[in-house]
Amino acid sequence: MGNPQTIWYNKEKNLVETIDQRFLPFQNRVVEIGSLDEARFAITDMIVRGAPLIGVTAAYGMYLAARNFSGDDFYLEMQRAADWLKSSRPTAVNLAFAVDEALSVISDRNTVLENTQLLFDYAENLKEREIEFSKNIGIHGLELIKAISKNKIGEPVQILTHCNAGRLACVELGTATAPIYLAHEAGIPIHVWVDETRPRNQGARLTAWELGEAGIPHTVIPDNAGGHLMQHQMVDLVIVGSDRTTLNGDVANKIGTYLKALAAADNCVPFYAALPSTTIDWNLNDGIAEIPIEQRDGREVWMMEGMLNNEVHEFRILPEKSPVANYGFDVTPARLVTGLITERGVCKATREGILELFPERSLKN
Ligand code: MRU
């Protein structure tokens, strides 16, 4: 698979490199990012996607903006770079978090060279932090899988996931997939139901690819199959990722997540969201009213991409004149979320539960 990380700095080339997720699973290409605009394009065109990876890419984007700076007002230019990056995708809060934190490490008392080094260090540090967060999410989530497996002698724990909250969405291990990877490593029998995740098919294309590479038993299902499986006791646990989770525990994630949570609640299936603290929006309390939901190009709805005779082709799948709508995310209200799996442990999807794990935030909120 080459580099086990999803994004890395190539010292020889003096460039950032990442896997081009637009071509998976058909082709495994690496793409170079050498400027602010290339970093932004990587985010908007979904070369990179997934909340933590978007954040890390934006942090490298800030570094690249500084490295390529040639004007006379460095600070103003960095502000512009920050705004430019923030306008790329609205829902994942990791993006604004990374850009604002990057801005906070530079100072007008430093030379441009010093500030550039600080921004590079910041991007590398955020990447390492996300790796650590994923590991710890894995460790805490593993306990949930272990507890279920005790009652399933000789049978795999059946986990359903939506979209791709895997290593491709992060740097390593993923969020929703981190407990899955650790359970597999620990020899616990598991099987993953992978929602295809229309319209871009991140489940069918990316999660299935990742799990396949790792040798984890999985089955891709159409998005609407989850409810049926849950009614027939074929799902023990749902784990999804998140793009933004509010302080009261509302979870924004890929469109369709809410319907899975409704089906899980109706069938008493535990529904967890796995997320690092970089995905928590400490300023919001009402996800449905306050989280901006990205609307993407309708082309993603009317067009499907697939392999035919060893070549990637695009196919129109609906009448030319039919209008389409493409909401990228939805919000699952906290009352439908059994718990949040974070790098500090599992908590209730409530303000109290979150602040118990992150008490330093109580002072600010
Ligand atoms: O539009 P995408 O592919 O960026 O959406 C990604 C998701 O919805 C993921 O579930 C989310 O970012 C969590 S990633 C660990």
UniProtKB/TrEMBL annotation:
Top-level EC class: isomerase
Protein's UniProt keywords contain Nucleotide-binding: no
Site entry: Transition state stabilizer: C163
Pathway assignment: Amino-acid biosynthesis; L-methionine biosynthesis via salvage pathway; L-methionine from S-methyl-5-thio-alpha-D-ribose 1-phosphate: step 1/6
Organism: Aquipluma nitroreducens
Catalytic residues of the enzyme: D243 (proton donor)
GO MF annotations in UniProt: S-methyl-5-thioribose-1-phosphate isomerase activity
One GO biological process term: L-methionine salvage from methylthioadenosine
Chain sites annotated for binding substrate: R49, G50, A51, R89, Q202, N253, K254
Family, as annotated: Belongs to the EIF-2B alpha/beta/delta subunits family. MtnA subfamily.
EC number: 5.3.1.23
Protein name per the record: Methylthioribose-1-phosphate isomerase
Purpose: Catalyzes the interconversion of methylthioribose-1-phosphate (MTR-1-P) into methylthioribulose-1-phosphate (MTRu-1-P).
Top-level taxon of the source organism: Bacteria
Catalytic activity of the protein: 5-(methylsulfanyl)-alpha-D-ribose 1-phosphate = 5-(methylsulfanyl)-D-ribulose 1-phosphate
Keywords, comma-separated and alphabetical: Amino-acid biosynthesis, Isomerase, Methionine biosynthesis
Presence of the UniProt keyword Chaperone in the record: no
